[in-house]
Write a structure and sequence with these properties.
CATH architecture: 3-Layer(aba) Sandwich
Family: Belongs to the cytidine and deoxycytidylate deaminase family.
Number of helices: 8
GO biological process, one term: pyrimidine nucleotide metabolic process
Protein name: Deoxycytidylate deaminase
Keywords: Hydrolase, Metal-binding, Zinc
Strand order of the largest sheet: 2-1-3-4-5
Structural class: alpha/beta
CATH class: Alpha Beta
GO molecular function: dCMP deaminase activity; zinc ion binding
Shape: globular
């Protein structure tokens, strides 16, 4: 074996190749989890990735609209101050949800999302569910449950494929 080949094997050990490639669902959910790290919400960090034909269309995380101060900057969450329970009174929040931001990014940039898959760190709420249905998204892969019975009912009624990610 030449010294050059030995040096190459040191740079690229055989055990590196032994790592299994993630499935597509694992890959895109991992990206959604990374996107969630950009969240400016003080209560919950959520990330979303819209995908079609194994290509990323848009991403979104929960946070305030462009140019508006977010809760992280303000150091206060209106919902926490008012003791608003999860899944109630969504209008009492400075931020938009990750799914909403992924959908509005598509609209802003003229990206077609009909037929796409949504990868999201959390199950969508009722407001996001209605947007998802109307946007023509056909599949949702989510990791964490969100307490919203009406969202579950409407998602089941819509025939959107729901996948609970167990990676």
């Amino acid at each position: 074996m030449t010294e050059e080949l030995k040096a190459t094997q040191t740079l690229f050990p055989n055990d590196a190749a032994a790592q299994p490639r993630p499935s597509w669902d694992e890959y895109f959910m991992g990206l959604a989890e990374t996107v969630a790290k950009r969240s400016t919400c003080l209560r919950r960090q959520v990330g979303a990735v819209l995908v079609n034909d194994k290509h990323i269309l848009t991403t979104g995380y929960n946070g305030a609209p462009r140019g508006i101060q977010n809760c992280l900057e303000l150091g206060v969450c209106l919902r926490q101050e008012m003791k608003v329970p999860s899944s109630e009174r969504h209008e009492l929040c400075r931020g938009s949800h990750a799914e909403q931001n992924a959908i509005t990014q598509a609209a802003y940039h003229g990206v077609r999302i009909s037929g796409a898959t949504l990868y999201c760190t959390h199950m969508p709420c009722i407001i996001c569910t209605k947007m998802i249905i109307n946007a023509g998204i056909k599949r949702i892969v989510f990791k964490n449950f969100y307490p919203d019975d009406l969202a579950v009912q409407m998602l089941n009624e819509s025939k959107i494929e729901l996948v609970v990610f167990k990676g």
